[in-house]
# Entry
Amino acid sequence: MSAKENERLWRAIGDIEEKYIEEADLNMKRPRIKRTVLIAAAAAVLLCGSAVATTSIISGRIGSSSSIPFYEEIPEAETVYRDLGFETNIADGFSNGYMFKAGYKGDSSDIDAEGKKLNSFSELTVEYTNGGDRVTLNAYSAQYADDDYQSYELAGEYNGITLYKSEQLYKFVPPDYELTEQDKADEASGKYVFSYGSDEVETTEFKWVGWVQNGVAYSLSGHDIDLTADDLCAMAEEYIDNNMQ
# Structure
């Protein structure tokens, strides 16, 4: 996994309770991010572009989102368009039992190596829960997404829409943690991606599915959930059906 892929994936993992984030790894090295402050709303960064125009190179993405739900009930697509600048029919739930809990509005910007903002756009985060498990839908205008997904696994096509997926184990370690020989071997083999900044050593499994439909970039993601990436693909297909024009 490249540093760019690692940075994108890490922005995509986390707990929905803490929705404030101002994180970017300008040098594209391993992010030093605590597990509890990573937000699933940033999952869309997996589709982040690598350049704007021809002179500004994107080095990271920053964003913020209130912890107070923006949508406590499912809004009409026209309302989402008015609030966020793109249209989507938010699903009330999925056949596997995951149901709408809340929707959140966030604001994001791509930045260059000097931290200069290159753009600004709105993102939608929707939380779906089933018992103690949580899956997060993230959506934003596809004009801020990259159409090159070759670094991610092709999951297949559904109704003419290409789906991509990713499954990865992560190990969170304290800032002063020194990798053991086994850790180094696990990192080299790709078994684990390491992130520094947690209070104790923890591991988590992150699963992600992404696609683009009707000019909107989407992703469904979750960590330590009783679902496979293929299960997330099935949920994505239901969401696609809900937004067929």
In short: Helices lie at 3-12, 77-84, 181-189, 229-242. DSSP finds four helices and eleven strands in the chain. Residues 118 and 243 are 30 Å apart (CA to CA). Residues 3-242 form one domain.
